[in-house]
Amino acid sequence: MNLTKALIIAAALVCLAVPAMAAQEQAQPTAQAQQTDPGAELINKIAQAEQTGDFKLVFDACQEALKSGKLNWAQELYTYQNRGMSYFVQHKYNEALADFKTITDKQERVIAYYTHNPNESMYKVLRMMLPAAYMMSSIIYEQQGKPAAALKYLEEYFKVSGVDPDDADLKRRRELKKKLGQLD
User: Fold this and answer.
1) How many CB atoms lie within 10 A of CB 54?
2) Whether pLDDT at 168 is above 80
């Protein structure tokens, strides 16, 4: 398996772990929670669809949620993450990039939220969502033959993920820089 395929599989698994974790932590919304949070039922439906592994169901649940007008901003980003992965699996890369860009454009708000609300379950989801959106964007741009954009999003991934790059990440960075003539 080549490095690019391995990276795509790894990134997809990371992105799929985000909704699964959220579903486990949020469990079934109670009737009271649904009254105070009109988006809870829709988010639960997305999480249940994601657990099936059927990206058509995930996509449909995301479309319904986004059209409803009931989501708060964090739920909306969660929905864009899931829909972006659905587009990615369907090889609809431009649509996936648009959804991931919706998330990365909100970077300051996401970081502020998870900095000030570390005990909420949504914190864990948002904390993982932002790096995943950067990594997926980097992978898509690389697949599209756009190494400058791929490198830019990879570097942003390193910044927001808070983890040191591993050997595969460093190798990918070197290969992108070589394609751009930044390394010999």
Assistant:
1) 12
2) yes
Q: How far is residue 92's CA from residue 84's CA, in Å, rounded to a whole number? A: 9
Query: Which secondary-structure segment (H or E) carries 14?
Result: helix 3-26
Q: Which of 175, 78, 83 is nearest to 129 (CA)?
A: 78
Count helices and strands (H / E) in the chain.
10, 0
Q: Are 162 and 1 in contact (CB under 8 A)?
A: no
Q: Which residue has the tokens 């996509």?
A: 59
How many Cβ atoms sit within 10 Å of the Cβ of residue 74? 22
Task: Compute CA 160 distance to the chain's CA centroid, rounded to the nearest angstrom.
Answer: 13
The 10 Å Cβ neighbour count of residue 37 is 16
The model's pLDDT over 28-82, given as tens digits with 9 standing for 90+, comes to 444 444 457 889 999 999 999 999 989 999 999 999 999 999 998 889 999 999 9
Tokens of 68: 């409803």
SS3 106: coil
In single-letter form, the type of residue at position 37 comes to D
Q: What is the DSSP letter of 29?
A: P
- Asked if 114 and 123 touch (Cβ cutoff 8 Å), the reply is yes
CA 77 to each of CA 4, 81, 98, 147, 176: distance values in angstroms, whole numbers, following the listed order: 26, 6, 12, 26, 29
Please tell me the number of Cα atoms within 13 Å of 37 on its side-chain side. 16
